[in-house]
Amino acid sequence: MKKHDISKVSMIAFLILLFGGLPFAGNHGKAIAAKKVWKLKIQSYTVPGEWDPQWTVPKKFTELVKKHTKGRVDMSFHPCGEMVGPREIWTGVSAGTIDGGTSLDIYEGGTHPEFCFGIGGMWSIDEFYDVYHAGAIDILNEQTVPENIRIIGYFPLMNFYSVSMKNEHIKTLEDFKRKKLRGMGGAANLFLKKVEAGIITLPMSEVPSALQTGVVEGIHTGMGGLYAMDLWDVAPYYTVAHSGTYQFYFLLNESIYQEFPKNIRTQIDAAQREWEQWYRDYYKTFWKVIKKDVVAKGIIWYELTPDEVKRWRELLTECSVEWVMKRTPALGRKLFGIMEKITGRKVVK
Prior knowledge:
alpha/beta
């Protein structure tokens, strides 16, 4: 082959490589971008506990998100205080100090009264999820997104309200009268006010010593409080109310959420749906296991009669309506409207 022919072939090969390789280079760039992994730190408001649903249930959600996104959203779950305090989670997520966190309706019910709409009016897990799927979660996110926060996961600590006393059980609403109880705040304190209990405000960390010294006679709490405060040591007379719901929210910084492509968001929604079914099964096991566990530790377990359960549910519903409608009536009408449609029960009287 002549020298100029070799040069010509070389030039053709160069051009093929140059122009033929460009699409490949572009696709390769896209492939690299598609492989981005978000490693996120999530702050819990509680500490690890095998049968504390406030820890075990959201921990499961992080696993399901990783599974559905094929590892592209990889969340580590951190105990209370490791990055911020429990009352700093909302502001920390909003500011981006932490990537995400967990919270309850009662914790945010002062600045977001509408979060407390479900304290009493939803009586089963199915009702809870049906209400949220019917638009409640969209209404709540419309309030949080302007604060740079998105709720990406949610579940009900369903019928979890309880009372733990130092010396005797609470068996009826009338038994609350003049008893000094540590209240949880917000609409939950409104419940205590209506039954004429003395409400004491204390951080959870101070509750055991307050019970020992008599500053309080008992605590209005949830099932998770058993483990968070070792109540079998200080307030063993435990009343299971089978009423009242804590609405649990898994929060993510909105700026991070906006980085996710559409398919990642869809996969997170799929994780939520699988989580819902997993929680239904967990919930059935939870009631069997927790009673056996805490009774062995010293809890004296009492369950309200069906008639008394109904009274507590109705009063808690009344409290949630009063709390929300006095503060955010427009949102309340939307949320309670969905609840009434789903449950078939009149909520706003």
